[in-house]
TrEMBL record:
It comes from the Bacteria. Residues 20-140 form the Cyclic nucleotide-binding domain. This is Global nitrogen regulator. Keywords: DNA-binding, Transcription, Transcription regulation. Residues 154-227 form the HTH crp-type domain. InterPro entries: cNMP-bd_dom (IPR000595), cNMP-bd_dom_sf (IPR018490), Env_Response_Regulators (IPR050397), HTH_CRP (IPR012318), RmlC-like_jellyroll (IPR014710), Tscrpt_reg_HTH_Crp-type_CS (IPR018335), WH-like_DNA-bd_sf (IPR036388), WH_DNA-bd_sf (IPR036390). Pfam families: cNMP_binding, HTH_Crp_2. One of its GO terms (cellular component) is cytosol. Gene3D superfamilies: Jelly Rolls (2.60.120.10), Winged helix-like DNA-binding domain superfamily/Winged helix DNA-binding domain (1.10.10.10). GO terms for molecular function: DNA binding; DNA-binding transcription factor activity. The lineage of its organism: Bacteria, Bacillati, Bacillota, Clostridia, Thermosediminibacterales.
């Protein structure tokens, strides 16, 4: 059982980074704070499995979490990687049911959660919060539609470029070398995000390095030429 983490000292700051709570008043935040629990998860620890009863909505306090689906042959298909302040498992928030995918810490993480029954009780008396939850669900749906569009209409090189562009915006740090992406995922996990094989992603990254678009330094990818990368991302 993961060790429980005390969030009280900085909970308000954390909650303000969570999209569905970011515009709440101090009074509303105080009500939400009373519902929050959190746990430590070591790298590689599963937070919940696909098919388990969905009884809570989660957000990342620190670290990173991947959400993925598996097939009968043990392959992973990563749907999303979440960082600090990101909400996940909201699909079960209002309708209940089971978790549609598995969530796993990809680095040591602290994950906050609110039980559905507690949040639903709060929502009944707070229509503004209900609207924000609807908005984030709509945003996640748009992300899913864009992922389907990418898989259907773009070739593997373009999908890889799209992925690098997105994670450089989400997780990159601008340095004198370029945009450094320190995302703790393996080549296999990158391939799962793109929807191809590890070997294909490795070849594409090597070609991008040869073309001067990126550099690779151990676990880091450095975007050297953002304009060239964006030109790879076709409309």
């Amino acid at each position: 059982m993961p060790e429980k983490e005390d969030l009280n000292p900085e909970l308000e700051k954390i909650l303000k980074k969570v999209y569905i709570f970011s515009e709440l008043s101090d009074e509303e935040l105080a009500k939400v704070k009373r519902l929050v629990n959190a746990k430590n998860y070591k790298k590689g620890t599963v937070i919940f499995f696909e098919g388990e009863p969905g009884d809570a909505v989660y957000f990342v306090k620190s670290g990173k979490v991947k959400v993925y689906k598996g097939d009968d042959e043990g392959r992973e298909y990563i749907l999303h990687i979440f960082g600090e302040g990101d909400v996940f498992a909201e699909a079960v928030l209002l309708g209940g049911g089971t978790y549609p995918a598995t969530a796993e810490a990809v680095e040591d993480s602290v994950v906050g959660f609110i039980k559905n029954e507690d949040l639903e009780r709060l929502i009944r008396g707070n229509p503004d919060l209900a609207i924000k939850i609807i908005r984030i669900m709509a945003s996640r749906l748009r992300d899913s539609q864009e992922k389907i569009k990418n898989l259907a209409l773009r070739d593997t090189y373009d999908r890889t470029a799209c992925l690098l562009h997105k994670i450089s915006l989400d997780y990159g740090q601008r340095t004198s070398r370029g945009i450094e992406i320190d995302l703790p995922v393996t080549r296999q996990e990158l391939a799962a995000l793109v929807g191809t094989s590890r070997e294909t992603v490795t070849r594409i990254l090597s070609q991008m390095k040869k073309d001067g678009i990126i550099d690779i330094d151990r676990q880091k990818i450095i975007v050297l030429n953002e304009r060239k990368l964006m030109r790879c991302v076709k409309d």
